[in-house]
Amino acid sequence: MISIRTLKGNINSDEADADLDPKNYEIECTPEIATNLKELLVRIIFKIDIHILNKEGKKSGTSGSYTNEFIFEIEGIEDFIKSRNSGEVDIHPELGTALLSLAFSTSRGMIYTRTQGTILDGIILPVIDASDLQKAFASPQVQ
User: How many CA atoms, within 13 angstroms, populate the side-chain half-sphere of residue 59?
Assistant: First the structure.
């Protein structure tokens, strides 16, 4: 990993939600991936939305959203990527899963740190199967 940046982060709170448990939440993850084959780089932009649930289990007015960027330099990247005629590429599933796992677990720590002392204090993103995340994104574009 050669670069990590938070591109965007915000917390929305509703005074009516002050008594809700911030540990009762759901998340939505949207990974985007792009490659730069000439420079041996893979870029992952990870958007994570956090929604605090009310007592009925529905989304409340309290939420957080974080977009983090991760840039990886991969030696021998050509062994893990196949180009298509359309300009899109296919990334080997094991590489995609490994990179998404690193990006998500790093995001977990970043979000935990950034939410301390806020209405989202105590949020810890769950450990998830990165192969499920890999299914969530479309084929990356070669840049």
Answer: 10
Return d(Cα 33, Cα 31) in angstroms, integer. 7
User: How do the residues of the chain divide into helix, strand and coil, expressed in percent and rounded to 5?
Assistant: 25, 40, 35
Region 88-111: mean pLDDT is 89
Distance CA 44, CA 27 (A): 18
What is the enclosing helix (H) or strand (E) of 8?
strand 3-12
Cα–Cα distance measured from residue 107 to residue 125, given in angstroms and rounded to the nearest whole number: 8
Question: Mean pLDDT across the stretch 75-94?
Answer: 82
| pLDDT for 86 beyond 80 | no
Q: Which helix (H) or strand (E) holds 134?
A: helix 130-134
